[in-house]
């Protein structure tokens, strides 16, 4: 399977739909272990993403992802805005120069996205942040030789669920120490929406 401009724009529309329908849920998760704005931040960011995409015509996947990155960086705010911005910027850089993106190019660019996230947020896997979902998805993609939307959804879901049992050592949730345990990490839940939406777009959903 290769990624086309149409799939990547569909990916972003799907993500926006899920974020908008779960805006209050995401904020309630952040209310439990943060400052309660994650849904608002993400909804604002992805609304801006789809409006940018709708107004632009693209010839490469990389250009779409670059606009996604820039728009998230300037519209999401909080801790998560620059982090999601960095991840999508790395995906854009890693997929540069080709109209269609093949599987191995996407996998390599996911590695760069995870490295960029870790560099910016200084978080390792297991610290109850979005890194847990991004790095699990990247590791899973390495084990495959093509996209498998159903398994992609499962990995995104299980890695998101695993954050519930973790103690946060980065970000606002880390102020709660042991009391952060028993709650899902909001940024991992929105990352889960991002990767289930990728699975949707690979299955041709718009
Ligand atoms: P803020 O905490 O500034 O209000 P958000 O609520 O939008 O920002 O985002 C919180 C999410 O950001 C967390 O759930 C977590 O997934 C992610 N996050 C916070 N700090 C880090 C970090 N240092 N590294 C990776 N992800 C982080
Ligand atoms: Mg917050
Ligand atoms: Mg905040």
From TrEMBL:
Ranges where the DhaL domain occurs: 6-200
Source organism, top-level taxon: Bacteria
The keyword Transferase is assigned to this record: yes
EC number, UniProt record: 2.7.1.121
Organism of this sequence: Pontibacillus salicampi
Protein name: Dihydroxyacetone kinase subunit DhaL
PROSITE patterns noted in UniProt: DHAL
Spans through the membrane: none
Gene Ontology molecular function, alphabetical: phosphoenolpyruvate-glycerone phosphotransferase activity
Key word Transferase present: yes
NCBIfam families: dha_L_ycgS
Annotated keywords: Kinase, Transferase
Pfam families: Dak2
Xref: InterPro entries: DhaK_L_YcgS, DhaL_dom, DhaL_dom_sf, Dihydroxyacetone_Kinase
